[in-house]
Amino acid sequence: MERIIFVEKFQIYDEDPTEIQMLLNVQMALDALREDGVKTVNIGSHDVVEGNTKLILGLVWCLIQRYQIASRSKIPPKKLVMAWIQSVLPELKLTNFRTNWNDGRALSALLEYCQPGLCPEWKGLDVEQGYANCERALKLATQYLAIPPIISPAHLSSPHLDELSCITYLSYFIMRGACGYRATLHRVQQLLPDCAVDDFEMSWSDGYLLSLLVEAVGGPVSLIN
User: Fold this and answer.
1) Which residues contact 179 (CB under 8 A, 6 or more apart)?
2) Is residue 126 part of a domain?
3) Is the same domain home to 170 and 96?
C-alpha cells in the first residue's frame, strides 16, 4: 500500500513513487524553497527527476549558500567565508579558494586553529608534498572534528580545484555549532571575559558587544559604559 508522509502542509510520496509522484515531490520541495526566499531560477521538477547534473549541482549550491553558509545574511557567501578564514589564519594571507589550498598548509593551519594540538607542525610542512599534506589534513578533520570528507586529496591538491567545492567544504567548519564556530566563540569569550557571549546571532544585534570587542582588540572605541 502506498504510504504518504505529511510534512506541515505538504504530502510526500516516499515508497515506490510513480514518475508523477516524483515530480510532485520535487515541485513541493521547490515551492517550499521559493516561499523561504531561495532563488531556484531555471530549474523545474522535470530537471531534477531526469537527473540534470548541472542544474541539480546549482540547486545544491543554492541550498548550501542559504542554509549552511550565510543564512539570511546579505553578505555574499564567498566573502563571508573568506573574511572568516583571513581573520583566523592571518599568517597565511589567503586570497582565494583554489591555489592557496593546494599544498595542504592552509587546511592544516585551520585544523590547528579549531583544535590546538591537532596539527601544530603545519608551518613546517613540505609544500612539495601537497597531496600527502591534504590527505592527512582531510583525515584529521574527519576523525577529530567531524568534518565530512566531501572533497578528495587529489581534488584539494590540484591547481584546478573547483572554488565552489572548496567553499562548500570549508562551510562545514563555520556552520553553527561546528568546530570553527566554537573556536571563534571561545576566542571572543576570552577577549570579553565579563560578558555573556553565547552565539553570533541575537547577542550582537544592539552593537554593544561589537563595540566592546573592537575596544578589546585595540580599536578606536572609547567611553563605553
Assistant:
1) 114, 115, 145, 146, 147, 173
2) yes
3) yes
